[in-house]
């Protein structure tokens, strides 16, 4: 690495020149590696030479740190080891160390080569020494300035490199609102190749979520919603006035959505069924998808309302936006509003102190699916009606109003007209929701769908459980066709899952694999009559092993069993689940959570 005097070689050369002109004596400057950095007169041709082989006196100065005056070069004790001791041309030599703090960074040599020069120096020795010291100080000051500047530049390079590693957007802004520095993330989020020099306006909205403040950032004619922190920098003025550390709200929403969305998004090709009713429904889905009107999907529990909603979203031009689902029955009444509209820090007691993004905001430019809309409390129905009319929302605890572009799909298995009569559902909301009604027939009205659905689920679960599946026997299919299916496709799916569990290595779903209730209520068939021969098959869907002995169940399994039995007793409808939850002594939301819906 080059010495510091080499780094400031031009400056050193200028000082050597000045010194030489004023003293009328030749001057050379060497660094602490005995490399000649500057030289005048007889030394001017020898600049940039390594003189470590000859600079004996200079080596002494570097060692002792003291100036050295040789009055009789070649004849003094110190000259004895010098290679030029016997042919020394010099008459007098003064070597002055250049210090930077404790370090000696070089030496200035004032070399008189004539008697006249020697006499002149000796005539004013003290003055010459003071002048030399002064020049050594000037060089030292320049070297220090250079080193400080160099350190600062290195620090800036390091900071530049460090902010490149940070996965938040960083911009530094001047007091004139112009971006001075940015990192790669900021470039990406602000969609600018070169943010430096761009004029920006940043305004806090006053909302705070996830420990971050929300800002509106205007860049030209574009506006970004960002979440982060804006800090004053120590200088406050000039090009480095403020530091903004931020994340794009869209990126935060994406993370939040990925964390919270559990919906299985299917398209029309996933809807199984050969019946004319199902085929017609698929055609309707494709047609409805092209519009942006609100759809009200009705049908009994488990008929596939959510599946249809995702198929509409999938076939629509909102497919690049999100599908955000919310089950109005599964969320406690008090929390439903904040789930839908979101809230900011400090919005209400008991709320998550970091705030939360609402489902409507999350669904912007996409679709929101309001499942079990019949269970929405009346005061929220009024609020939803306003959203439907004005397409604007406000987070709880905030006074910001957002315009949203969301398509609303709602679903219910309740008779909303009856609820309107009972004053439990707002008529005006009903008409706003029911712009496109889509009714899904119960399974018992489309029994042609049962065999392909059963095949589909059997294939799916066999693959999941890594079992061989060959076929479903005709008596079993008959039984499945005749069973009334109060829980519709979901119940059929559960039954087939159970049967695949019970299925032997032959891969045949025969009557022995059927749950008792389905076998009994699904009508008697020949196979059952011939195979039962008085032996009572005690298998039920959730508790037995199929080997005739009861397993010891874990508490969790016991709990699941109690919940399933209660649902089986009171029905797989929202009302049924409500009653089941009541009988079990738990809240409806807890029940939904425990059954994973
Ligand atoms: N035609 C179909 N083809 C394939 N799978 C189906 C079909 N209909 C329903 N399913 C499946 O049945 C299950 C229940 O469907 P979904 O949750 O959409 O019903 P739902 O009507 O929304 O139920 P709930 O009224 O309880 O909210 C899901 O696993 C779904 O994929």
From TrEMBL:
Domain Sigma-54 factor interaction: 271-501
Keyword Transcription: yes
Gene3D superfamilies attached to this UniProt entry: 1.10.8.60, Homeodomain-like, P-loop containing nucleotide triphosphate hydrolases
A Pfam family matched in the record: AAA_lid_14
SUPFAM superfamilies in the cross-refs: Homeodomain-like, P-loop containing nucleoside triphosphate hydrolases
Keyword terms, alphabetized: ATP-binding, Lyase, Nucleotide-binding, Transcription, Transcription regulation
Gene Ontology biological-process entries: regulation of DNA-templated transcription
Composition-biased stretches (Basic and acidic residues): 510-530, 539-554
Record-level Gene Ontology MF annotations: ATP binding; lyase activity; sequence-specific DNA binding
Region (Disordered): 510-554
UniProt xrefs under InterPro entries: AAA+_ATPase, AAA_lid_NorR, Homeodomain-like_sf, HTH_Fis, P-loop_NTPase, Sigma_54_int, Sigma_54_int_dom_ATP-bd_1, Sigma_54_int_dom_CS
Protein name: Formate hydrogenlyase transcriptional activator
Species assigned in the record: Blautia luti
């Amino acid at each position: 690495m080059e010495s510091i005097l080499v780094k400031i070689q031009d400056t050193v050369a200028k000082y050597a020149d000045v010194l030489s002109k004023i003293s009328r004596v030749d001057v050379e400057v060497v660094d602490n590696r005995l490399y000649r950095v500057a030289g005048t007169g007889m030394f001017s041709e020898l600049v940039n030479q390594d003189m470590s082989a000859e600079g004996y006196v200079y080596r002494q100065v570097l060692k002792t740190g003291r100036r050295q005056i040789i009055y009789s070069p070649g004849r003094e004790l110190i000259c004895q080891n010098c290679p030029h001791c016997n042919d020394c041309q010099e008459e007098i030599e003064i070597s002055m160390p250049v210090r930077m703090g404790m370090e000696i960074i070089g030496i200035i040599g004032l070399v008189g080569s004539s008697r006249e020069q020697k006499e002149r120096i000796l005539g004013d020795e003290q003055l010459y020494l003071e002048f030399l010291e002064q020049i050594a100080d000037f060089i030292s000051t320049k070297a220090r300035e250079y080193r400080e500047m160099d350190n600062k530049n290195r620090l800036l390079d390091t900071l530049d490199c460090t902010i490149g590693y940070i996965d938040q957007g960083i911009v530094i802004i001047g007091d004139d609102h112009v971006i001075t520095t940015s990192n790669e993330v900021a470039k990406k989020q602000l969609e600018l190749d070169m943010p430096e020099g761009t004029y920006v306006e940043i305004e806090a909205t006053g909302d705070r979520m996830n420990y971050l403040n929300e800002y509106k950032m205007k860049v030209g004619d574009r506006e970004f919603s960002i979440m982060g922190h804006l800090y004053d920098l120590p200088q406050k003025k000039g090009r480095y006035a403020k530091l903004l550390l931020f994340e794009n709200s869209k990126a935060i929403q994406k993370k939040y959505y990925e964390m919270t969305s559990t919906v299985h998004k299917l398209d029309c090709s996933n809807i199984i069924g050969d019946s004319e009713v199902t085929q017609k429904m698929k055609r309707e889905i494709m047609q409805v998808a092209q519009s942006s009107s609100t759809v009200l999907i009705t049908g009994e529990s488990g008929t596939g309302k959510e599946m249809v909603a995702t198929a509409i979203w999938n076939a629509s031009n909102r497919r690049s936006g999100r599908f955000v689902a919310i089950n109005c029955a599964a969320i406690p009444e008090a929390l439903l509003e904040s789930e839908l509209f979101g809230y900011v820090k400090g919005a209400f007691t008991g709320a998550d102190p970091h705030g939360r993004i609402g489902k409507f905001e999350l669904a912007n430019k996409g679709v929101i699916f309001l499942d079990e809309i019949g269970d929405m409390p009346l005061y929220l129905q009024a609020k939803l009606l306003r959203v439907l009319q004005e397409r604007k929302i406000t987070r709880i605890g905030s006074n910001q109003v957002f315009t949203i572009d969301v398509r609303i799909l709602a679903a219910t298995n309740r008779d909303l007209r009856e609820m309107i009569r009972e004053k439990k559902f707002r008529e005006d909301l009903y008409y706003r929701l029911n712009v496109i009604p889509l009714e899904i027939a119960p399974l018992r009205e489309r029994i042609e769908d049962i065999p392909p659905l059963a095949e589909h689920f059997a294939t799916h679960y066999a693959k999941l459980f890594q079992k061989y599946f060959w076929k479903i026997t005709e008596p079993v299919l008959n039984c499945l066709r005749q069973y009334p299916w109060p829980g519709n496709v979901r119940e059929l799916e559960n039954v087939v899952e159970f049967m695949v569990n019970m299925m032997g290595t032959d891969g045949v779903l025969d009557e022995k694999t059927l749950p008792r209730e389905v076998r009994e209520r699904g009508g008697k068939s020949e196979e059952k009559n011939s195979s039962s021969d008085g032996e009572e098959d005690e298998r039920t869907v959730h508790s037995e092993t199929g080997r005739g002995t009861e397993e010891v169940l874990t508490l969790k399994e016991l709990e699941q069993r109690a919940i399933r039995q209660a649902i089986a007793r009171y029905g797989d409808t929202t009302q049924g689940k409500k009653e089941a939850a009541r009988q079990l002594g738990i809240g409806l939301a807890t029940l939904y959570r425990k059954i994973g819906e």
